[in-house]
Amino acid sequence: MRSASVERRQSTKWWWVMPMYGFPVLMLLNMVMLAVLAVQLHRSNSLQSRFADSMDTPAAAAMYHTRGGGIIAALLPIKFAVDHVTPYKDQARRGTCWDFSTIGALEQSYRKHGVAKGWLDSNEYVSFSEQAYGIEVMELCTGPVWRNSTEGGEVPLLYYLHKGLKDSVFPTRVCPYTSSPGHDWDCPELDDAFVRKSNPLSFTVNDMGTFYDQASIKHKLVQSGLAMPVSTTLVSVQHMYPCVGKFLANDPRCDAATCQLCPPELPMATCCVPADSTRGQNMDGEFLAHSGMQVEGGHGMVHPFNWYVPTQDDGVVDIAACLSDDSVQYAALNRQPLHLTCVDDAYCVPGRVYFAKNRTSYGDRMHVMCFWEYDPTDKSSKHVCLPPMLQETIARTFEPDEVYENDSDLCGFYFLPYDTISQVSALFQGFFVNSFDVKWAPQSYLANREKFPHLNYSLVQASTFTQHSSSRFDGPFPFAHKYKPMNQLTQHRRRH
């Protein structure tokens, strides 16, 4: 048995050693931990890059999957996007989101398979017809429930009706999509027996998976490399003006005895006044999570925060900065509108030119946006501000003179954050994601037409398009170009 004195001596020696070596030891441990963390981050990014470059190879499959086909959660990339996604399309004012979602998944599956087999170039895709698909589903679903309408269908119908749909997906050139309600059956070309009989597109749906939580969705997305249709409850959001400041000072709706209480997002005030807009998405296409959510039924987008704000450089200030050649060039370089025209004469003066100046957050997703107002007749100007407004209301007050179209090959998609999904699902349920195991017949591809002379590939050929790649990105100004060097006189003036 060790004596207490020996224990005390050793303990005393240990605590004497710690002050001498403790700091270097702690520094060494910290350096080791940072090194391990750096290796893990590098490994994650490296795996992600390798996976994106060789997703369809056996090496990638072995890297990410267990023997049973499951995916190793620790090796999931921190960010991931599937390849071969086709450009977005606009369902307009019809309730055909399920139709577009299904066709989008089929287009990506067809493209992925065709590229892997060498039947399509990597920048090629074939667009399918949402109009025809909706009609084919209605043909299979006659009866009182569907009411001869494509309103409110479901993505899983592709699986449950696959025996009737396997030869009933048509190229988009078969007939145009009708954007206005009440024209669900408009596609006279489908009445032609030859069009149906000679359609090359043919597929089988071997399986359908349904996923409800983030982890399983991410696993399946990386595992399959396929686009997966999303189904969710859409919500409307009641936004509120807080009863503070002069804007609502005399509004009877701010009477504390009878007012509507503010939501938790606005703790600075007791009373609030509802705004006119109840959109559940902002003008960037992002779906919102909010305490005032309610179930709604449908989805539209021109963004005032993209308007160019002139900078006051080189002593050029106020309205002169807005009228300068530099502002014109930089606004064009960034593809941002500079000159604004008054639309709503309740807040601005028609015939005058407006320039965005600044904005301040106010209330519940609202902003006070200020402008330079310029009168070209007498060249006078003044500073004006709108009352607090939602983005959508500001966009209805002014319209830009310069309009730059988005890249239709790559832009236009909605953004649905996982945080929004969690809150919407907790309140209303209705969220799920489907995956489809689809096998495309070789006859479906234009490259194989000589093997199937009895089929008509003219519609497939007319519906084949190219999509430019987004893999090469030079920096934060994708539309920038090199300017000619300034002459010496200009350089001297800029320096002084």
Automatic annotation (TrEMBL):
Transmembrane feature ranges = 21-41
Q: SUPFAM superfamilies of this UniProt entry?
A: Cysteine proteinases
Top-level division of the source organism's lineage: Eukaryota
Gene3D superfamilies registered for this protein in UniProt:
Cysteine proteinases
Name the UniProt key words of this record, in alphabetical order: Membrane, Transmembrane, Transmembrane helix
Carries keyword Cell division?
Answer: no
Q: Is Zinc tagged as a keyword?
A: no
**Protein name, entry field:** Peptidase C1A papain C-terminal domain-containing protein
User: Which species is the source of this protein?
Assistant: Aphanomyces astaci (Crayfish plague agent)
